[in-house]
From TrEMBL, chain A:
A Pfam family hit: NIR_SIR_ferr
Stretches assigned to the FAD/NAD(P)-binding domain: 4-281
Domain (Nitrite/sulphite reductase 4Fe-4S) ranges: 630-765
Family (UniProt): Belongs to the nitrite and sulfite reductase 4Fe-4S domain family.
Species assigned in the record: Pendulispora albinea
Pathway(s) this gene product operates in, as recorded in its UniProt entry: Nitrogen metabolism; nitrate reduction (assimilation)
Alphabetic keyword roster: 2Fe-2S, 4Fe-4S, FAD, Flavoprotein, Heme, Iron, Iron-sulfur, Metal-binding, Nitrate assimilation, Oxidoreductase
Cofactor(s) listed in the protein's UniProt record: [2Fe-2S] cluster; [4Fe-4S] cluster; FAD; siroheme
Chain ranges of the Nitrite/Sulfite reductase ferredoxin-like domain: 558-620
Name of the protein this chain belongs to: Nitrite reductase large subunit NirB
Matching NCBIfam families: nitri_red_nirB
Residues annotated as domain BFD-like [2Fe-2S]-binding: 422-469
InterPro entries associated with the record: BFD-like_2Fe2S-bd_dom, BFD-like_2Fe2S-bd_dom_sf, FAD/NAD-bd_sf, FAD/NAD-binding_dom, FAD/NAD-linked_Rdtase_dimer_sf, NasD-like, NiRdtase/SiRdtase_haem-b_fer, Nit/Sulf_reduc_fer-like_dom_sf
From TrEMBL, chain B:
Organism this protein belongs to: Pendulispora albinea
UniProt KW keywords: 2Fe-2S, Iron, Iron-sulfur, Metal-binding
Coiled-coil positions: none
Keyword Metal-binding: yes
Chain ranges of the Rieske domain: 4-99
Protein name: Nitrite reductase (NAD(P)H) small subunit
Database matches in Gene3D superfamilies: Rieske [2Fe-2S] iron-sulphur domain
Length: 815, 102
């Protein structure tokens, strides 16, 4: 006769327990019934911030879909809240009136968002951030709103802030304490983290107690703090901590302190048939808010219940965790501060790079560590911490890899026990990964998909890859799609180019027809259009539907579906006449903003789509290409024209560059600059391509610079002595980049991938003997250029929206 | 339900979409390269992006603002977390005109 197990809670703890139980033959022993508040299968709560940020689709965070319950004969009451557990009658009651008897019951209730006492929390625009539904409500509220305040600067609050930031909001984090993440970090680390987050655009307010959420007409307008200050915002996310869900247990007469009290057997001291695991439970005076302890508890309880190891006990978890806070790598373990006189603290701080490392050593062993901004040092430390290994005499070896080699990481993975957790997000151990590899998962992609390792925050992906290599050796299969030029056509760029040339494919639809089995792929269309235009020039058969809207209408779509228009102003040098034209167009077409851009051009923002052709006509200036994946602008300083220091004519050179290369398509946009002296006022060394005049009458050409989402100083390609030579080598580099870069690969990634020496060999030293050919091909593209604003407008795009027509009363088909 | 005549099918470029106004309602009508017609609400539920300006491939449209992707047959989102689009019946009459039912 099978016993009946009721699990209350279908979150990470409850579902994990059932998974572990199934692995141990639990199905033979128990009929399993689960209750879940939320009407879904179970999902990985850790990844909610990624959903908020738009990096994950909600369906990707599900651990077990509803089908899994069916397949395993588990009765799931999804969307049913348990309202009572009657321990005398041994029954559980749901809020739908249903009753389930049990032999054993497990409380896996998790925890709830804690909302501190303050006024105004009932208004529209106030959210907590705990469930998929919370996430959904927040996302629905964002459109049309600009500024969000997150109350709480702990891990979850920062995760919420990241999500909102990535959705384009201005985000303020309001924190009660004097540094961020005070539960995990010491003050120095908190300060360094803060500095890094500020650079990412977050605004941070410390030591602020919010006493009221201000509103108007029932919707949020701001916050008021205890010190009297206020902050304007359109929405508020409260993420000030969690509280174990214990109400149900209290009402069932169980001992509850902060959480539901359990012993080493994970059972309540009041009732041997009642167990509690996860965030709702309290063991040895501790409650946990991280996943690793939950995995430990689920395993121990599964061993007891399945009777595989009826005597298994839980002795608390040593919490070592890797966190991904807004793209900042952070690992914390054990204690945060030295607490005895004999404790040693070994620290290293480098605020500017966002690096902070601290290890607390007691009796020659690690009892705590904080590692910020150095993911490589983490696995070794976690391992030493977990095993209580003796630390090296030279403590510096704890913080730095003194051998400089990469061998150690692999070696340390090799020596890890099978139970060692590799993926914290999904609780996947080394053993799980090795089993999957032995079971046939031979590429990183397949391995990650089949085990779910690496599909969370992604920080462990390197380790997963290393384990794959360890286990499969030569049998590792590289997933081919990572080399495809576009996802929908299964060919790497060189092969794709060869096929396109050999078969004479001059249109995007022809490529789909011939090389992708006729299957159109939206994500592949713009990349193919760009490549075909690069390859065929004038012979390219332009299909408008393959272009992104910006390239269909030669303007840049904005968040409110209006467009911005940038006329070309060569080298940034304009005239009163041009300015008048621009001003007139701005007036006539109701530009919502007229802005000088970072590329020293004038942007007319907020132009209606249907007005675009009229704006171009009125401007009567060439298209400035602020929209295409193409050469954009060449920023200049005044060089020798007016500057006291100028040693080269940067303005003249910039104009020549812009006239020559205007509109040249490429895998990604190219931003250029010329500087008249090494003072570099036009920032030429951080552009895709830049030229800097030196006092010797020469020009240094830089390639692969970046000052956008990341900053990189360009590498010197070569030094030449005339404007003509600058134009020649710039053009040759552009063509080389156009032919060899992946779609959407900026020059700075391309140069790093290929290596500047290699680029220099081909482009400058011409070791492959293709220099003349590259020159000729870029020249052909220059010659093929036509100003898109002079084209006949694409009528079906620009014709006005239809006015209402007379309704046709009878259906035309005569039904 | 009302019925609207949007005129010749040629008014919608092959492989693209176009916004029409039927009374108070804005509707995006798509004409795929395979020759099928679809009609959905005009704005993306996520950020009100103009769906007719999106990229169409097979029977999908990608919103130009944040790349949420929808199946034109069902209106269901296939990439991103977003509400389902309202879809409307649309057909070509015997005289080659596009007939929309909203």
């Amino acid at each position: 006769m099978k016993k009946k197990l009721v699990v209350i809670g279908n979150g990470m703890a409850g579902a994990r327990l059932v998974e572990e139980l199934l692995l141990r033959g639990g199905k033979e022993r128990f009929d399993i019934v689960m209750f879940g508040d939320e009407p879904y299968g179970n999902y990985n709560r850790i990844l909610l911030s990624n959903v908020l940020a738009g990096a994950h689709d909600p369906k990707d965070i599900f651990i077990n879909p509803l089908r899994w319950y069916e397949e395993n004969n588990i009765t799931l009451h999804a969307g049913v809240r348990v309202v009572a557990v009657d321990r005398h009658a041994k029954i559980v009651r749901g809020d739908n009136g249903g009753v389930e008897p049990y032999d054993d019951v497990v409380f896996a209730l998790g925890s709830s968002a804690f909302v501190p006492r303050m006024e105004g929390t009932a208004q529209e625009g106030v959210f907590v951030f705990r469930t998929l539904d919370d996430c959904d409500s927040i996302l629905k509220y964002i459109p049309g709103r600009k500024t969000a305040a997150v109350i709480g600067g702990g891990l979850l609050g920062l995760e919420a802030a990241r999500g909102l930031l990535q959705r384009g909001m201005n985000v303020h984090v309001v924190h009660l304490m004097n540094h961020l993440m005070e539960l995990q970090l010491d003050r120095t680390a908190g300060g360094i983290l803060q500095r890094t987050l500020l650079q990412m655009g977050l605004r941070i307010h410390l030591e602020k107690a919010t006493c009221e959420i201000l509103g108007q007409d029932g919707a949020v307008t701001g916050l008021r703090f205890q010190d009297g200050g206020t902050l304007d915002c359109d929405m508020v996310v409260v993420s000030a901590g969690i509280r174990p869900n214990t109400q149900l247990a209290r009402e069932a007469g169980l001992t509850v302190a902060r959480g539901i009290v359990v012993g080493d057997d994970l059972a309540s001291p009041d009732d041997p048939h009642v167990f509690a695991i996860g965030e709702c439970s309290e063991h040895a005076g501790k409650t946990y808010g991280l996943v690793a302890p939950l995995w430990d508890q689920a395993r121990v309880l599964a061993e007891r219940l399945s009777a595989r190891k009826p005597g298994a006990t839980y002795h608390g978890s040593r919490v070592a965790t890797k966190l991904k806070v807004m793209g900042v790598d952070l690992a914390v373990m054990g204690e945060r501060e030295a607490s005895t006189e004999n404790d040693e603290e070994v620290t290293y701080a480098e605020a500017k790079r966002g690096v902070y490392k601290k290890v607390i050593v007691r009796d020659g062993r690690i009892v705590g560590a904080i590692l910020l901004g150095d993911p490589e040092a983490a696995p070794g430390l976690v391992q030493s911490f977990d095993r209580g290994a003796e630390v090296p005499e030279n403590r510096a070896e704890l913080l730095f890899r003194l051998d400089g080699g990469d061998g150690r990481a692999a070696a340390s993975l090799e020596s890890l026990p099978d139970e060692a957790q590799i993926c914290n997000c999904n609780g996947i151990s080394k053993g799980d990964i090795l089993r999957a590899v032995r079971g046939g998962a031979r590429s990183l992609k397949v391995l990650c998909e089949s085990t779910r390792a690496g599909t969370g925050c992604g920080t462990c992906k390197g380790d997963v890859g290393a384990l794959l290599e360890l286990a499969a050796g030569d049998a590792v299969v590289e997933d081919p799609s990572v080399h495809y030029y576009v996802p929908g056509v299964p060919l790497p760029k060189p092969e794709l180019v060869e096929e396109i040339r050999a078969r004479g494919l001059t249109s995007v639809s022809a490529v789909f027809r011939e090389l992708a089995g006729g299957k159109e792929d939206t994500a592949s269309k713009p990349g193919l259009a760009s490549l075909l235009k690069t390859l065929w020039g004038k012979e390219y058969v332009d299909e408008r539907d393959a272009r992104f809207i910006n390239d269909r209408v030669h303007a840049n779509i904005q968040r409110d579906a209006t467009f911005s228009v940038i006329p070309r102003i060569y080298g940034g040098v304009t005239s009163a006449d041009q300015l008048r034209k621009i001003a007139n167009a701005a007036d006539k077409y109701g530009a919502k903003m007229v802005k000088i851009t970072g590329g020293q051009r004038i942007d007319l923002l907020g132009i209606k789509k249907e007005d675009l052709p009229h704006v171009w006509r009125d401007l009567d200036m060439p298209s400035g290409h602020a929209y295409s994946k193409a050469f954009r602008t060449c920023k200049t300083c005044v060089g020798t024209d007016f500057c006291r220091y100028g040693v080269g004519d940067s303005t003249g050179l910039g104009i020549a560059i812009e006239e020559r290369f205007q509109g040249i398509e490429s895998p990604h946009k190219m931003k250029l600059a010329t500087a008249g002296c090494p003072r570099n006022c036009s920032e030429a060394t951080t552009k895709d391509i830049g030229a800097v005049a030196t006092s010797g009458g020469t020009w240094e050409i830089y390639v692969g610079g970046a000052a956008g989402s990341r900053v990189r100083k360009g590498d010197i390609l070569c030094t030449v002595d005339s404007h003509d030579s600058v134009l020649r080598y710039m053009g040759r580099f552009m063509q080389y980049y156009r032919e060899n870069a992946k779609y959407l690969e900026r020059t700075y990634d391309f140069v790093e991938r290929v290596g500047i020496e290699e680029v220099r060999k081909v482009v400058v030293d011409d070791v492959e003997g293709i220099g003349a050919r590259l020159d000729a091909d870029i020249e052909a593209s220059v010659q093929a250029y036509a100003d898109p604003w002079k084209e006949v407008p694409h009528v079906t795009q620009f014709s006005e929206k239809l006015e209402p027509l007379e309704p046709v009363l009878a259906r035309a088909s005569g039904e | 339900m009302s019925t609207w005549n949007l005129g010749s099918v040629e008014r919608i470029a092959l492989g693209e979409g176009r916004t029409f106004r039927a009374g108070e309602l804005e509707v995006a009508v798509f004409r795929t390269r395979a020759g099928e017609l679809f009609a959905t609400q005009a704005q993306c539920p996520h950020g009100q992006g103009p769906l007719a300006d999106g990229i169409v491939g097979a029977a999908r449209v990608v919103c130009p603002l944040h790349a949420y992707t929808f199946d034109l047959r069902t209106g269901c989102v296939t990439q991103g977390a977003c509400d389902t689009l309202r879809t409307y019946p649309v057909e070509v009459s015997s005289t080659g005109e596009v007939i929309l039912h909203v």
